[in-house]
Amino acid sequence: MSQEQPATERPVTVVALPQDLPSPVTPAVAPPAMDSPRVRLRRPDSVGHWPVPHVMVYYREIKIAWGRDAIAQMTKQASRTKICLRVAFDNSHYEGSSFARNAVLFGTFYHTTGKDDWGPVMLGSLGWSEMIQNVVRIELVYHEG
Hints:
Elements: E1 54-59, E2 62-67, H1 68-73, H2 76-87, H3 91-94, H4 98-102, E3 104-109, E4 121-122, H5 128-132, E5 135-141
Parallel strand pairs: 1-5
Antiparallel strand pairs: 1-2, 3-4, 3-5
């Protein structure tokens, strides 16, 4: 008859890591979860040339293809307003709403240069038309606040 050896307890090491502090110029909006199936993005090998003529626009479970040149010709604010009006509101309820004030656009870039521009990144207004030429997807994110 074999005797069972008593289980040996292994020491546990706990490491406290400081929380990242948000930049004072960055709104406190969390990007979409990195493990979300909508965020995982691989460059398709079948793309013959870049940029393709469309950008995929997401809001929750809604997915719409928009023309890249049309988005680039608008300002960021006009693009955000059009996206909001298309997926969430009609004109009479959008202006002055909490949604209009707190919705944020995140983009995923096709060509990246490192970890800072990989995955969903909050999109700024400066250089909007140039930046859109490298964006694969735009996600409208709204957190009540």
